[in-house]
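To: structure desk
From: M.T.
Subject: fold request, one chain
Message: Could you run this one when you get a chance? Sequence is below, nothing fancy, just the single chain.
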Amino acid sequence: MLGERAGQLLDLIRRGRARTRGDLIELTGLSRSTVAARVDLLVAAGYLCESGREASARGRPSNVLSVDGSGGVVLAADLGAAHAKIAVCDLLGRPLAEAVHELRLADGPQPVLRWVEERWREMLGAAGVTSGHVLGLGVCVPGPVDVATGRIVQHTPVMPGWQDCPFRDHLERQFGVACVVDNDANAMAFGEYHTEWPASSPMLFVKVATGIGAGMVVDGRLLRGADSGEGDIGHVRISSADDGPLCVCGARGCLAASASGRALARVLREQGEDVPDSRSVVELALTGHAGATRLVREAGLMIGDVLATAVSLLNPRMLVLGGDLVLVQDLFVGAVRERLYQRTQPQAARGLRVEASRLGDRAGVVGAARLALEEVLSAEAVDRALAGRQQPVGRPVC
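Reply: Done. Structure tokens follow.
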């Protein structure tokens, strides 16, 4: 069938491995007529467009093929403990509309999901996009997610009442398209890698905000654990079980109980400061407050200690730090670097770069959109859509 391998050709274009029909012929071994027919099908369906001409050493210039961003949209949401970032993005991941709102995940899944649906539909209307152009959804949350079912796999204090809630299935029914749900640190890692550091694999991303989490990207794909517990470094023990502050997980001595934004805010409140959350800690530190700056630096050193083990085990090329505390770059990022290079063997750290997130607060929503795009533009999904005549509606020319 003509469309059975069309998705594979699109994937080669998306990954940057091919730019022209000639490239596709050379990479796949397919005949010129077969490639031409499948490319024409992808162009007609709105997945690809011809965006220019490329000089060829073999003769006349070739048409350059690229993903047609206008062929549809994905909806993305980064749901945090107290704020949500939502977006409508085209098929290249570019935001057509994006907004930040206050939101409480602790209110439970029903009101939160109703709110997300309403905001998405409002944004579609404001962007002039019909619901028929929506191809997929991406959502990230601050909790452990079973990506196969899209459900929170265990109780988390930030999301009471969400455990085992089928909210992915609910959103798919509401919009009639596939939805990807993942942990926020994974989404941030994925977004940061694909938009800012695509040549830096393996890349380890660490989020330090209300809690602490991590995600790792290897050759463009997220590294997954066996039971959805990957990246949970906030609960690495840094002191004995009977020592240290009590963590939200119920244990004592966890890294997050001493070095997260929530932990630093608690210490400052005990000292009489008005700091309700991790962002308030950052704001206080940026004013030069002695207690806040000391705590931020100490947090960086503690996290650097734990990451030294991760770097020795995984040997990443890039370590990207995100979340609230990274806003105090000189103190926090500098302290992490200092401790990492002190505690890591030269072989593991020789080529390591340690950088602050370039996407900042947008990392989660960008990553959620990218995860949705990976799903709806996968070779399998594209071939299913073509076989079922469920093509996106787009323009054949960029």
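Reply (cont.): The radius of gyration is 23 Å. Let me know if you need anything else for the meeting.
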